[in-house]
Amino acid sequence: MNLPAVALVGVNEEFGRTITPFVSPPDSPNLHMLLAAADERQKRLYMKPYASGEAHSAIASSEPGAEAAGMTTRAVKDGDHWVIDGRKIWISRVPYADFTIVMALTDPEKRARGSITAFIVEKDTLGFIVEREIPMLGGARTYEVVFENCRVHERQVLGQVGNGFGPMQFRLTVRRLQIGAWCVGTARRALKMIQWWIADGATKVHAYSLIAMDTAAKQDRGEDVRTEASI
């Protein structure tokens, strides 16, 4: 719905608070990245179906042992195509994604300052290989992907060549707001649970104190307290 960021935070805080695993929709920051950088053709083919829930996407940015700005995945121009080679990791939902936004270097000399380019890679593209599944905490799964001579048409460049870092940072800001809100919601639920545990514990401590005192008083009166002592 592209509501303000304040609404996004409020909604996601409630998602984090409930035990129901809501997502709305999976990886929605990609919508913001597409909205910021996609041309009209890409919006029609990718953004609109994704926004309506008819398509799914993923993003391939992180690499083994490298931050985003230190990525080594390369994309080399070959006529009207780009050839992508490299490796990405910690990618969510990629086996089920209709397309994946892939970050790659197009000018290694410039690195993060004018070299990182975003590409839209459709599923089943030759050379786009989901190599392994990585089990995560809580039953989640991420994946490692390999690009081997993966050819994509120049129409699949998202935004401008060498200018992919800015839209990606915008996307990450949206996701970080979501994650921050989820954490707040989860923490509130945990605090409430802990408060009840503390209340129940305090009640039991008070009850046990009264039982011990009652048993002692009865024993002082010469009564049989074998049952109370056992309690």
Total DSSP E strands: 8
H and E order = HHHEEEEEEEEHH
Whole-Å distance between the termini?
60 Å
Structural class, judged by helices and strands? alpha+beta
State the major sheet.
4 strands, mixed
Strand line-up of the largest beta sheet:
1-4-5-8
State the helix count.
5
Subunit arrangement of the protein: single chain
Q: What is the CA-atom radius of gyration, in angstroms?
A: 27 Å
Low-confidence stretches: none
> If you average the pLDDT, what whole number results?
90
Roughly what fraction of the amino acids lie in strands? 25-35%
Q: Helicity, in percent?
A: 40-55%
Shape: elongated
List keywords for this structure.
231 residues; alpha+beta; 4-stranded mixed beta sheet; 4-stranded antiparallel beta sheet; 5 helices; 25% strand; elongated
